[in-house]
Design a protein that fits this description.
The complex is a heterodimer of chains A (115) and B (114). Helices cover 0% and strands 50% of the residues of chain A. Chain A is built from no helices and 11 strands. In chain A, strand 5 and strand 6 form a beta hairpin. Chain A starts with a strand and ends with a strand. Chain B is built from no helices and 12 strands. Classes of the chains: A mainly beta (115), B mainly beta (114). At the A-B interface, strand 4, strand 5 and strand 10 of A face strand 5, strand 6, strand 10 and strand 11 of B.
């Protein structure tokens, strides 16, 4: 059984650019959520997708958007990058929207640096 | 809204010392509580969980008890090892709009010296 995989592991972007981060959920998991973890902070919830529909969103502006595909993989898109978007972006999956009650499986993250 | 407060670090201990990392929470519903661990350069790993009051979660010598009366979920280990050095996150997962959404604390860095 494969875990959650994210790509790329690192990338550097210029302020104002757009970026797409990718996540493959653990086999059998249909719920994917994304988090932003700034240096020295805890993860902040961005949004969650369940069966290709967004079903929860944190306090992030609309320039943070996402998709979930029929195979339950997911993308996080960030437009008009700002310096404060520099962070570790984590993806997590669970077997359903309600099994988040029992915890999530996290990927290793994508380290985004905006210069 | 929901929130998690955990003690600031770093917590520095010698090998075989007793560990306590305090965590308290505020939630509107009946959340599940978790401890996650993050090793350098890696994502979060679920360490232990408790889904209802008075439950004790345990794993790898770590344990925490869900205390509803004090809204706490303190992490303990009787004898730490150098390999336990990592950042520990307390989290809750509460039902919002049909989904369980987690809220994390800021993390506590643990450094264990030989």
């Amino acid at each position: 059984e494969t875990g959650v995989t994210q790509s790329p592991t690192h990338l550097i972007k210029t302020r104002g650019q757009q970026v797409t981060l990718r996540c493959s959920s653990q086999s059998g998991h249909n719920t994917v959520s994304w988090y932003q973890q700034a240096l020295g902070q805890g993860p902040q919830f961005i949004f969650q997708y369940y069966r290709e529909e967004e079903n929860g969103r944190g306090n992030f502006p609309p320039r943070f958007s996402g998709l979930q595909f029929p195979n339950y993989s997911s993308e996080l898109n960030v437009n008009a990058l700002e310096l404060d978007d520099s962070a570790l972006y984590l993806c997590a999956s669970s077997s359903s929207a309600t099994t988040g009650k029992y915890g999530y499986t996290f990927g290793s993250g994508t380290r985004l640096t905006v210069v | 809204g929901d929130s998690v407060t955990q003690m600031e670090g770093p917590v520095t201990l010698s090998e075989e010392a007793f560990l306590t990392i305090n965590c308290t929470y505020t939630a509107t519903g009946y959340p599940s509580l978790f401890w996650y661990v993050q090793y350098p350069g890696e994502g979060l790993q679920l360490l232990l969980k408790a889904t209802k009051a008075d439950d004790k979660g345990s794993n790898k010598g770590f344990e925490a008890t869900y205390r509803k009366e004090t809204t706490s979920f303190h992490l303990e280990k009787g004898s730490v090892q150098v390999s336990d050095s990592a950042v520990y996150f307390c989290a809750l997962s509460d039902l919002r709009g049909g989904s369980y959404i987690p809220t994390f604390g800021r993390g506590t860095s643990l450094i264990v010296h030989p």
